[in-house]
Amino acid sequence: MTAILAEPVAAQAGAFRAAAPKGAFSLDSLLVALKALRVNALRSALTMLGIIIGVGAVIVMVSIGSGAHQRVAEQIRSLGANLIILLPGAVTSGGARLGTGTRPTLTEEDAAAIARELPIIEVAAPIVRGQVQVVFGNQNWSSWALGVTLDYLTAREWDITEGRLFTPEEMSAAAKVTLVGRTVAEKLFGDTDPIGQVIRVRHVPFTIIGVLDKKGQSTQGADQDDVLLTPMTTAKRRLLGFSGTRARAVGSVMVKVVEGESMKDAEEQIRDLLRQRHKLQARDEDDVNIRNLADIMETREASSRILSLLLAAVASVSLIVGGIGIMNIMLVSVTERTREIGLRMAVGARGRDILVQFLVEAVTLSLIGGTVGIVLGVGGSIAIAAFAGWPTLIQPWAIVVAFLFSGAVGVFFGFYPAKKASRLDPIEALRFE
Questions:
Q1: Nearest CA to 132 among 141, 119, 121?
Q2: Residue 93 in 3-state DSSP?
Q3: What is the pTM assigned to this prediction?
């Protein structure tokens, strides 16, 4: 009778001895882990769900944040590199400040002096602007007309895709010629070539001599392509009615700083020069507002980075929850496999072998979930960009970090159950029912 009972026990012990991994992590331990997970496939899948959701959410959130960051950077770059914008100061009436631009404190001469006297400045382009109604045949469109000099396109780094730029003769003669943005060209002409066509702007006929390259939206969401550019002299004399004391005034000046020079230094030099030209005393406030686009870009980019990190941090909570799920299931597994652990120890497995085996199972569970989460995260990012229209940018570093973090979660939350299993007393484990 004893021999009959001893035979299956010996066979079972031999099987455990063969399956028992020796030493540290090995291919055998991985195969045993996969077999153990396959025994309870549904439970394993549900356990991995937290990791899958966590990794996928991290990748999607980082992609959305990075896409928003890239979009902001592109919008700021579309304004032009190394730009400083000068705006007329405010006027105070009856104790109330009426806001920027209510005093004509900037002139064409100011722009010329900035370009001439400050070596740090590449160009200074004065601008006047006004909203106009544009008519071609039976089509009409409300747009913005800008009076500019030849330096404007240099400052904005704006190319002409069709046609040509103004000539110096057209600038001095206030010629009725214009460059149109892509939006204006599409609204008035559709697929027809606009070059050489005559449009009416505030009832004044203008000949289109060029079409500007596409710029897209500004940082404020305005369509930069919804614009007409005319010579400064033409805009003042024929469109916007600048006369008398305002004849030399401008609405703003775009200053392009030489590449590699300090934007802060340029800002200070411009401020000092304008205060000197406008004869301001030390106690007087600046009568020109200076806006450094580099500062704006840094602020927007910092906000985008914070948004990306915040979204990733929120998504990472799912990974922690998934790790807690792994710990819970591994503790249940230790209880269910107490006799198995006892048999392994009885045939020679050491506590370290048991610890490694359960740790490998936890990490395997976590990494499989991480791999599936990566696939779903990348697919989700692509789907969001395609169907929701949100800008997304899949970051390889986010994929790597999410995968490694999922493995770390498996190690961290699997260590306690593995340690508990390795410390079981073989005799007590074999008696466990």
A1: 141
A2: strand
A3: 0.59
Q: What is the pLDDT of residue 399?
A: 87
Domain boundaries, the chain: 12-73+300-431, 104-286
Q: Quote the CA–CA distance of 58 and 64 in Å, as a whole number.
A: 10
Beta bridge partners of 148: 127, 231
Instruction: Say whether pLDDT at 328 is over 90.
Output: no
Residue 315 corresponds to which tokens in the numbers above?
Answer: 């998504």
**Tokens standing for 279?**
């004869």
**Residues whose CB is less than 8 angstroms from the CB of residue 293 and which lie 6 or more positions away in sequence, other chains included:** 76, 79, 80, 83, 84, 85
pLDDT tens digits along 35-54: 777 777 787 888 888 888 88
| % of the chain residues with pLDDT over 90 | 29
> Is residue 355 within 8 Å of 422, Cβ to Cβ?
yes
Rounded CA separation 325/49 (Å): 9
Which one-letter amino acid corresponds to residue 413?
A: F
CB 112 within 8 A of CB 279: no
Select from 126, 125, 147 the least CA-distant residue to 204: 147
**Strand pairing class (227-231; 139-148):** parallel
Residue-by-residue DSSP string for 115-147: HHH-TTEEEEEEEEEEEEEEEETTEEEEEEEEE
